[in-house]
Amino acid sequence: MIVSKNIEIDEHGLNIIRNGIKTEHIDYSQIEKAEIKQEFYQRNWIIGLLIGIIIIIVTFLWLFDSLRSFEYETPPTRLIRAGWMLFISQFVVFIFGIGIIFSSLKRSLIIYFWVTGKVKRIQLLDIEKQKKVNELFDFLGERIKIEKLHVL
Description:
Elements (H helix, E strand, L loop, with lengths): L1 E2 L3 E3 L3 E6 L2 E7 L3 E10 L4 H24 L8 H28 L2 E9 L2 E6 L1 H5 L3 H9 L4 E4 L3
Parallel strand pairs: 5-8
Antiparallel strand pairs: 1-2, 2-3, 3-4, 5-6, 6-7
Helix pairs in contact: 1-2
C-alpha cells in the first residue's frame, strides 16, 4: 500500500483524497492507462510567472521613485514612521513577487490516469519526497499499463 496526501494505492484500486477525505475510489479495471510526468506544480504556471514579474517591476519602479524623491529635511515623527513603513512594505511586496515566481516555476511528478474517457491528474509530491516513485511505478506496472515520461 502506497499512501500520500493526494492518493492511496492498494491491491483493490486507487483512492483519491481531497482535503483529507477519500472522495473517489477507482478500480484497476476502470483505468485504461497511466502516465507519470515531470511537470510544473501549478496548472496555470505562466499566469503566476507573469503576475510575479509584474509585481517585481511595479515594486522596483515604486522603490526607485521613492528613493529619487527622498527629502533631506526632517519631517515630524509621525511622517517618519509612515515613510519607513511605506519603504519597508515595498521590500515585502518585492519578496512576495519573488516567491510567486519561484512557486510558479516549481516542478514535481504528476500522474495522469485515463479512466473511462476522463483524465485524473494527481500530484506525487509526497511520494517524490519519500523517494517511493520506483516502488509506485513497479506496483502499478503489475496491475495497469503505465508509462514514465520525462522523469528525472
